[in-house]
Structures are given as structure tokens and as C-alpha cells.
Design brief:
Radius of gyration: 13 Å
Helix content: 10-25%
Structural class: alpha+beta
Order of helices and strands: HEEEHEE
Number of helices: 2
Shape: globular
Length: 100
């Protein structure tokens, strides 16, 4: 799956924020997610976030892949990181639908 490969690159810091031309059909952008509670200049990535639908100020829809099941168990009880406000559901294998 292309999203998995891109998410891996995003979490390694080797994928640009704006989607590459060959991936623009997948999302507008992809960013690394980091926990805000992590201290220090080098925060540990907890996942990757993709913006897939934009309604301007009316809201956005995206996908998040969390690093692993332990991260999911820790984060799902609070609002999603990365500016998202709601978890909308699980897609499977640490993938979730998010919105704001």
C-alpha cells in the first residue's frame, strides 16, 4: 500500500510535507506526528498524518497511521495529535480516520 510506504518515510523524516507529484492523488500533505508531552528538541515520532479532504475553514478529513498498537492504546483516549480534533474510526493495522 502506497500510504504505508509514505508513512514510513514521513516518520523517518525523509518525505516532504507536500505530496510528491506521483502521490498527489493520495493526499494534499503528510506530516510526522509527535507527542506534545515529549520533552527535548528531538521528539519521538508517534505516527504519520495525511490530509485527504479539505473544506477550507469548514473542516478537514484525514488518515493517521500510528507507530504501533501501544502508541494507539495510549493516544486514542485523548484528541489526536497534529491539529486533528476527533478520531472518527479505525481502518485497521494502526490506521485511523481523523477530522477537525
Amino acid at each position: 500500500m502506497a500510504y504505508d510506504a509514505i508513512a514510513d518515510d514521513v516518520m523517518r523524516g525523509t518525505y516532504p510535507r507536500r505530496m510528491k507529484p506521483e502521490h498527489r492523488h493520495l493526499a494534499y500533505w503528510a506530516i510526522m506526528l509527535q507527542e506534545s508531552s515529549t520533552e527535548g528538541p528531538m521528539k519521538q515520532p508517534v505516527g504519520a498524518s495525511f490530509l485527504v479532504v479539505s473544506h477550507g475553514f469548514a473542516g478537514h478529513l484525514g488518515f493517521v497511521r500510528l507507530a504501533d498498537e501501544a502508541t494507539a492504546n495510549r493516544l486514542l483516549s485523548s484528541p489526536p495529535p497534529g491539529g486533528w480534533t476527533r478520531w472518527l474510526g479505525r481502518l485497521g493495522d494502526n490506521w485511523y480516520v481523523v477530522a477537525n
